[in-house]
Amino acid sequence: MDVEQAAEDLRSRTLSEIPRSLDRLIYLASMRDYNTGLYYHDGLASRFTQDVACEALADCHREAFSELVGCSLRELVGQMEGYINATHTCPRDFVTAWKKLEPYRVAVPVETDPVMAHFLFSSFKIALAVLEARLHSVPAEPAA
Amino acid sequence: MIQLIFFLSIGALLFASLFLLARRSARPEGGSGALVEARQALSTLQAGLLPADMVKRIFTQEDWEYVRSVAPQKVRELFMEERKRVALLWVDQVRAQIRSLRRFHRGSARFYARLNPRLEMELAMSFAALMGACSLLRALVYVGGPYAAPRMVGAMANAAARACKVSEESLSFLNAAQLGMLNSRPAGRAAL
């Protein structure tokens, strides 16, 4: 019950401000300690407990992952464009970095079904190729 | 002398048989491990691999239509390659989980007196048919790509879902509390 309340609190206070599921996935993955796999959120832990906050963050992370997996490729490309704009990154730099580093691989929740994780990674790869092709069809802006 | 060799050979054979039997019984077939594995296979199939929206998501042609309309040939080829890989992975995973379930029902079912023999026979037939369908679908996807057999994908997913339901009914006498005891994890770590 506490976990459900904490998850609802997180959704209403924080996640509702993040419109895209891609952004939510990345945000929630960033709340996770890579050494332990546990999630930390000071505000949520102070209102509930550390264990409850951890469970609530994990639930919301799984939710964001499911939402993103449910998106069509067109929607995923749109979400990535939105993310690039929101982070004020140069699209070419973004595509190059994401193709090389594949940061989405560390953004999935633990114990995700391997087929679904692989499907999402594959969709990211294709979406990046679509974005890259789109960038190549647009001439680069001359350097200032 | 010949008699001595004969009796020694028989003795050695008996000893080898005893050793093999002892090794076999060291891994109890009806143990909780096999049961937990079967329940996990059921849960992976029912929650991860077989839900209609997931199957539709993997095999939908909507993504292909989109890529075909906006991307050049190179990206289209990448798309087909990637989707084929995912489709093959899906088939392999379904087959692996069904094999795991079949192993449980074939190897461990005799340890549970409350299993229904008629249901077990029905399951054995379903599993055999599903394994055959998986192999055929794999070959079709491998040769023809992810959209080679859309109807077969749907039919196989439905048949697998039905087999899972029968298997679940067959194992329903094992209540959640018993499984919870087998599966229990320390609190606070459930997020992992």
Verbal overview:
The complex is a heterodimer of chains A (144) and B (192). Chain A has seven helices and no strands. Chain A has 144 residues and is mainly alpha-helical. Chain A has one domain. Chain A is elongated, with a radius of gyration of 17 Å. Chain B has one domain. Chain B has eight helices and no strands. In chain B, helix 5 (73-107) runs antiparallel to helix 6. The model of chain B is unreliable at 184-190 (pLDDT under 50). Chains A and B meet through helix 4 and helix 7 of A and helix 2, helix 3, helix 4 and helix 5 of B.
- Main sheet makeup of chain B: none
Which protein chains are joined by the largest interface, and how many residues does each one contribute? Answer: A-B, 30 and 32 residues
Structural class, from helix and strand content of chain A?
mainly alpha
Distance linking N and C termini of chain A: 57 Å
Taken from the alpha-carbon principal axes, the silhouette of chain B is elongated
Report how far the terminal alpha carbons of chain B are from each other.
67 Å
Helical residues, percent of chain B: over 70%
Q: Structural class per helix/strand content of chain B?
A: mainly alpha
**Low-confidence blocks of residues of chain A:** none
Q: How many helix segments of chain B?
A: 8
Q: Beta-strand percentage of chain A? A: under 5%
- Name the helicity range of chain A: 55-70%
- Please tally the β strands of chain B and state the result: 0
Query: In angstroms, what is the radius of gyration of chain A?
Result: 17 Å
Helix/strand order of chain A, N-terminal first: HHHHHHH
Low-confidence stretches of chain B: 184-190
- The count of helical stretches of chain A stands at 7
Number of self-contained structural domains of chain B: 1
What series of H and E elements makes up the topology of chain B? HHHHHHHH
